[in-house]
Amino acid sequence: MADPQADPAAQPELMDEDEPFFSNLDLFLFSLIAGLIVYWLIFRKKAEPIPEFKKPQTTRETSFIDKMKKTGKNIVVFYGSQTGTAEEFANRLAKDAHRYGMKGMSADPEEYDLLSRLTEIENSIAIFCMATYGEGDPTDNAQDFYDWLHEGDADFSGVKYTVFALGNKTYEHYNAMGKYVDQRLAELGAQRIFDLGMGDDDGKKYFPCVCKIHRIRFNLIRQYELKVHSDLNMNKIYTGELGRLKSFENQKPPFDSKNPFLAPVTVNRKLNKAGDRHLMHLELDITGSKIRYESGDHVAVYPINDSVIVNRIGDLLGVDLDTVISLNNLDEESNKKHPFPCPTTYRTALTHYLDITNPPRTNVLYELAQYATEPKDQENMRKMASSSAEGKALYQSWVLDSCRNILAILEDFPSLRPPIDHLCELLPRLQARYYSIASSSKVHPNSIHICAVVVEYKTKTGRVNKGVATNWLKNKMPADNGHKATVPMYIRKSQFRLPFKSSNPVIMIGPGTGIAPFMGFVQERGWLKEQGKDVGETVLYYGCRYKNEDFLYQEELEEFEKTGVLTALNVAFSRDQAEKVYVQHLLKKNKEAVWRLVHTDNAHIYICGDARYMARDVQNAFYEIAEELGGMSRAQAVDYIKKLMTKGRYSQDVWS
């Protein structure tokens, strides 16, 4: 290594003894640095500690478990509800518990993860009122609960439960959700204390069966108390809003079931050329709403009741319908403070919030019976509400088969004049009506189309009953003299979807207004063709009564066929000849082409319309085609179609 002393440059320079150790510049820099250090030490912002992530606790201050403990309740009734029927039934069961010496509450199944804690409450029971939506699917509010049951491995040992399944026997997947919940809870160790119930009738037997040792005399208990407002500010009174007060005056997205969008009606035209029915096409403007939809989705609309019926009820009961009232829940811990938005008027409640046109359920008859002053009327009402064979038969013939709504019952039982507040407490909520959207958002991004038939018929009592929604929509004419006719609406997503690959063929079967979603499908397939996409065969089977009377969208469909968007347009005119011809007959007539599309070309099958007859007959037609051309037995054909359903290649959008 070189010696550093050998290099003069490596030697330090000697300082002059008279030169100061620090120059003025050094002192300035030193002071500045020292000041910065002091400032940093005193005024610096201390580093915030990184929060430790903690798994969310399942215990909630307002959990149903806490509420049950606080209020001494031992029964919780969960509901999976799409249209409100299961929720209404759950509320009735919770209320009935009080009449048998127990205390109940209803709850949304969102707190499913606390179920195992029910064992902390003595003599506790969980009841599940589960409706089924679509093709065996859970309702929207029960989807998370279903997923949790399906994927989880919770231990429900010691939890006592029972399930009531609510559904329609005409549907393929009748009560599928209720059956699944009943089976899965048992698999996870819960104790079934009452066999799976199928609807209201089994509900009547429930409490007498499980509460024999507690049973007391059946008492009528009010759930809500009436408060009449005499000097309330009009701006604080609900006038038809479903959630936020004044939401119809000050619209804010996102729009949903509690916050519907007021869509202006831009088109309302009659579709049929003749006949005594009224089939209509409406277009709703959603410009600026940020609402998005896809072909196959449903539009939900909130109708209002006929003012003639509302006024007649008010006259019979001798009340001022413009009285401002609130119905307040006597159970202060209940999540449901009111049966409908309050404060409001009786007129608004009967017009916007309550179902006054459907036949009342047996529990309504039972509770109203106490107000009939004629013993015979009271006896008949209680008999119809009973679970006896005679009572059921009387209810079926006198109420259901005769289509008696609450007004008809008040008219036919002259001695029955209940307090209007109790009537409002008992009547179910007026529900949204769902229509398959008859347009494609690719072609009509700012417009939603509806295709519907106006419902009007004469009952066995000689009365004329009118469908609430369709008659209301019929009168919703486009803007006239500056006034916009609007419809409160929102979108309900559907699984009724075109194939992901546009090259897949589609077979669409939709007689009558069942054509609705297929108008959207065909529009979309046409749009895809315009974009240069490879689009598979698009085959439609449509049916109506007469070609010159009710061939809906005839010009549009024939144009789609002419331009090649529709590969084949098959129309069954059921009454244009002596022997009736329906869509299932055309399917069998074209069986070779149908079987090729389904079995060889992976076609997707779509059915929309009547569930009771048409959908069943069409399914049988596919069984027969599979048997004949696929060489299958009936059992094999049934299994073949079920596999198509599982793969999403056989979809139904049906109603009864």
From TrEMBL:
GO CC terms in record: cytosol; endoplasmic reticulum membrane
PANTHER family attached to this UniProt entry: NADPH--CYTOCHROME P450 REDUCTASE, NITRIC OXIDE SYNTHASE-RELATED
Bilayer disposition of the protein: Single-pass membrane protein
Location(s), subcellular: Endoplasmic reticulum membrane
Organism, as annotated: Cyprinus carpio (Common carp)
SUPFAM superfamilies linked to this entry: Ferredoxin reductase-like, C-terminal NADP-linked domain, Flavoproteins, Riboflavin synthase domain-like
Domain FAD-binding FR-type: 258-499
Transmembrane segments: 21-42
Protein name, UniProt field: NADPH--cytochrome P450 reductase
Chain residues that bind FMN: 81-86, 131-134, 166-175, 201
Keywords: Endoplasmic reticulum, FAD, Flavoprotein, FMN, Membrane, NADP, Oxidoreductase, Transmembrane, Transmembrane helix
GO molecular function: flavin adenine dinucleotide binding; FMN binding; NADP binding; NADPH-hemoprotein reductase activity
Catalysed conversion reaction: 2 oxidized [cytochrome P450] + NADPH = 2 reduced [cytochrome P450] + NADP(+) + H(+)
